[in-house]
């Protein structure tokens, strides 16, 4: 069971997101907070597997709350939940230790997949904000297209397929279904891809996939 802390200053948002998460029998929302300070306090009290935090909250904003939770509770993964996808928010959230960035307007299945991914120790970036990461963090930290293509050339054809689907925002179960593989095999491929590319998580791998042209702008994996 994945134990989740949900923080948002709007009660209706908390109710809606909570209902979506409750539809998955493997997820339990153990606490809800209306501001960032309460989120930090409840995280310390409940020690959830995942803290799902809105960015704009009173008393302490979600970004500052995320940084404090990451610093003081290493067993709790943090994902940001927001309507905003500006570069500065994405950069600060990921730089502060958050491993997920989800949009409130995203698909409910995407929300559940994101919570499951970060709980599993992986990173999850909503496909709708992937372009912000590519244009911002990607260009600065991982180099331009020629460098990314050179790195991708080190991968096997199957590893390139997996990387393209990671870049398109698919979870391990979705990749397994797309490529007709068992999930354990997909996890092994993802781990091998991260090692070969010398990146720490799926978000950085997705940046390489975009820079190398493996993923189209609309989020679909490019052929080949």
UniProtKB/TrEMBL annotation:
Q: Could you tell me which species this protein originates from?
A: Streptomyces silvensis
Q: Where is the Response regulatory domain?
A: 3-119
Q: What biological-process GO terms show up in the record?
A: phosphorelay signal transduction system; regulation of DNA-templated transcription
Report what the protein is called. LuxR family transcriptional regulator
Coiled-coil stretches: none
Q: Does the keyword Transferase apply?
A: no
Q: Which SUPFAM superfamilies match?
A: C-terminal effector domain of the bipartite response regulators (SSF46894), CheY-like (SSF52172)
Q: List, in alphabetical order, the Gene Ontology terms for molecular function in this entry.
A: DNA binding
Domain called HTH luxR-type: residue spans: 148-213
The reply to whether Iron-sulfur figures as a keyword in the UniProt entry is no
The record's keywords, sorted A to Z, are:
DNA-binding, Phosphoprotein, Transcription, Transcription regulation
Write the lineage as a comma-separated list: Bacteria, Bacillati, Actinomycetota, Actinomycetes, Kitasatosporales
Question: Which superkingdom is the protein from?
Answer: Bacteria
Give residues where 4-aspartylphosphate occurs: 54
């Amino acid at each position: 069971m994945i134990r989740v802390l949900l923080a948002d200053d709007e009660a209706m948002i908390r109710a809606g997101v909570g209902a979506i998460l409750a539809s998955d029998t493997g997820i339990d929302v153990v606490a809800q907070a209306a501001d960032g300070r309460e989120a930090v306090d409840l995280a310390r009290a409940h020690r959830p597997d995942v803290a799902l935090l809105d960015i704009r909250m009173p008393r302490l904003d979600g970004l500052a709350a995320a940084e404090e939770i990451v610093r003081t509770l290493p067993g709790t993964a943090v994902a940001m939940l927001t309507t905003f996808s500006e570069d500065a928010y994405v950069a600060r959230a990921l730089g502060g230790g958050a491993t997920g960035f989800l949009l409130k307007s995203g698909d409910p299945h995407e929300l559940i997949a994101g919570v499951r991914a970060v709980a599993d120790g992986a990173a999850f970036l909503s496909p709708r904000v992937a372009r912000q990461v590519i244009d911002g963090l990607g260009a600065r930290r991982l180099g331009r297209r020629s460098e990314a293509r050179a790195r991708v050339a080190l991968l096997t054809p199957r590893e390139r397929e997996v990387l393209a689907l990671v870049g398109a925002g698919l979870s391990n179960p979705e990749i397994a279904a797309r490529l007709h593989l068992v999930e354990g095999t997909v996890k092994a491929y993802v781990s091998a891809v991260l090692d070969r590319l010398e990146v720490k998580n799926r978000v950085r791998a997705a940046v390489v996939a975009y820079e190398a042209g493996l993923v189209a702008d609309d989020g679909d994996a490019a052929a080949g």
